[in-house]
Amino acid sequence: xxxxxxxxxxxxxxxxxxxxxxxxxxxxxxxxxxxxxxxxxxxxxxxxxxxxxxxxxxxxxxxxxxxxxxxxxxxxxxxxxxxxxxxxxxxxxxxxxxxxxxxxxxxxxxxxxxxxxxxxxxxxxxxxxxxxxxxxxxxxxxxxxxxxxxxx
Length: 152
Hints:
Layout: E1 6-17, H1 21-29, H2 31-38, E2 44-47, E3 54-59, E4 67-77, E5 81-90, E6 93-107, E7 110-122, H3 128-147
Antiparallel strand pairs: 1-7, 2-3, 3-4, 4-5, 5-6, 6-7
């Protein structure tokens, strides 16, 4: 029997990117570009980037259960802000639900991105520290994508 629990957590991550807000925002909005830094080559990634649109990333790491991360876009202000709600399923079980805000602003030589996530992590299937670490990895991969000239 599963020990039912809910852990609530909020975290904020900041990154400085050597690119304009237009380029950084476009890397979130373009399906091919986003798949390169957000997903993995063996995953199934879909992106409908518009208010009311949906993003789904399905993967099966190693021999473990499938992971499905699904987001709905609630607010999009081009080059300034993205707000989305997400759920993570591990197999058929809901592991987490969250609200994320991504803000883009000017910085010396580029763009300052501030991502804030508020989450409910369920039954020990996902931990806030895992999510924060994984989200940081995505943002670092976005930096690599931008430095490589992705989505010029």
